[in-house]
Design goal:
The protein is an alpha+beta fold. It has one domain. It has three helices and four strands; from the N terminus they run ααβαβββ. Strands 1-2-3-4 form a four-stranded antiparallel β-sheet, with helices on one face. The protein starts with 9 loop residues before the first helix and ends with a strand.
């Protein structure tokens, strides 16, 4: 007589693997990794905008005026680097997605009516703009 060998058949294993693949695919589509990555990049942009704005406010507090790079027209934040790095911020942040060489991806602008500035992320991917301070 033959001995009975216990275990799963090949068909049973293939069915289980197929079900696991289908469930895994559903989970990946439900999580939408592209949207999660976009949100992560926008969160990094928010942190950068707040850091640049904080450095400009720190400069303004110390010098009693904003640096010359903060004008009523939009200017790339790279122009402010000589004024705020390293005294007010360790290094000038750059947009998480590589853009044009020599640009940060962030703009600075002086508010016309108030003695304040604003910083804006140029390449925000979400629904809303990413801004710190006053921006019109």
């Amino acid at each position: 007589m033959r001995e009975k060998i216990e275990g799963f058949t090949l068909i049973e294993l293939l069915i289980v693997i197929g079900i696991m693949i289908i469930l895994g695919t559903i989970v990946v589509f439900a999580m939408n990794p592209g949207e999660r990555l976009r949100d992560a990049r926008d969160n990094q942009r928010k942190a950068h905008v707040e850091a640049i704005y904080g450095a400009l406010k720190s400069y303004n507090f110390r010098e009693e005026s904003f640096p010359g790079c903060v004008q009523e027209e939009e200017t790339d934040a790279k122009e402010c680097e000589p004024y705020i790095v390293p005294e007010h911020i360790a290094s000038m942040p750059k947009d998480p997605v590589e853009g044009v060489e020599g640009e940060t991806g962030y703009m600075v602008k002086k508010h016309e009516l108030f003695d304040d500035a604003g910083v804006k992320a140029v390449h925000a991917e979400g629904e809303e703009e990413i801004i710190a301070g006053f921006w019109e």
